[in-house]
Amino acid sequence: xxxxxxxxxxxxxxLPKARVWAMxxxxxxxxxxxxxxxxxxxxxxxxxxxAAAVPFFGFCAVLIGxxxxxxxxxLTLDDGGVDHARLGRFGWDEIAAVRIREQRVRNTSQLFIExxxxxxxxxxxxxPRLVRSTASMNARLGFGPAxxxxxxxxxxxxxxxxxxxxxxxxxxxxx
Length: 175
Fold this sequence. Notes:
Layout: E1 2-3, E2 6-7, E3 11-13, H1 17-40, H2 44-70, E4 75-78, E5 81-84, E6 88-91, E7 95-105, E8 108-117, H3 120-126, H4 129-140, E9 147-149, H5 157-167, E10 173-174
């Protein structure tokens, strides 16, 4: 937003590297555990668990390692829109609303900032491949295609929504 004739400087949220390094270490530990299960193969359950853990957590480790190597901000907000490391760039005119969503699985929950888009199909046509491949799963869970995990942001999700409203005062925030 332009205030007193001066554009608002971008709000930049760097990748919280210590947290992401911990996520990488956790993924590698699960890969190692999967290998142990495969080598031990004392039961069918252990063999199946190992066969599932190695490729899944190996893929996670590759994605996390790539994210660390790119060394770019996780999220940048400016007067033109939102630039997210995984999701890409959105103009404010593409975003109908934003909201904080929670995904609960057993005893844990994960918070997301969901960008509710005017035209999700137009975004999916240009979205990164990983986003396109997870879009149908997100839809089954009741989410749109543009969701930012808050565990890779260095601030609480409410602080991000406040910054979004500073850059785009008319932005609709759903609760």
